[in-house]
Specification:
Largest sheet: 3 strands, parallel
Radius of gyration: 13 Å
CATH topology: Transcription Regulator spoIIAA
Structural class: alpha/beta
Shape: globular
Number of domains: 1
CATH architecture: 2-Layer Sandwich
CATH class: Alpha Beta
Helix content: 25-40%
Order of helices and strands: EEHEEHEH
Number of helices: 3
CATH superfamily: STAS domain
Strand content: 15-25%
Number of strands: 5
Distance between the termini: 23 Å
Strand order of the largest sheet: 1-3-5
Length: 117
């Protein structure tokens, strides 16, 4: 998993992104410590956040729990986030575990797999 700062200017009318969460190809219990550190590092920024899960090829309950915890923390702090992408594997895990409603930022358009958020 890599951490990347948002260095590009936002599109006209778009909210600037303060934090960027980039999920790696594997988000499993084996990567949980690194994923947690990445999420905490980004959570220290004021937000809003952009989450990119487009590269996820493998995810388990532990990895998804960390993403859900981050989303719930954003909700508690009233911080907006959007999804840049969700891979089919990530989307399937979200649906199987029934956490889709927890991963939608209030006030944001619902994420549509393969479409614009």
């Amino acid at each position: 998993m890599t951490s990347a700062a948002n260095t590009t200017a936002p599109a006209a009318g778009a909210k600037p992104v303060a934090g960027q969460i980039v999920l790696g190809s594997a988000c499993t219990i084996h990567e949980a410590q690194a994923l947690r550190a990445h999420l905490l590092e980004q959570a220290a920024k004021p937000g809003p956040y952009e989450i990119d899960g487009g590269a996820v090829e493998q995810i388990d309950t532990a990895g998804l729990q960390l993403v859900v915890a981050f989303a719930l923390d954003c909700l508690e702090r009233n911080v907006h986030y959007t999804w840049k992408a969700r891979s089919p594997v990530l989307e399937e895990a979200i649906q199987i575990l029934g956490v889709a409603p927890l991963l939608e930022s209030p006030g944001a358009a619902s994420y549509i797999p393969g479409g614009a958020a």
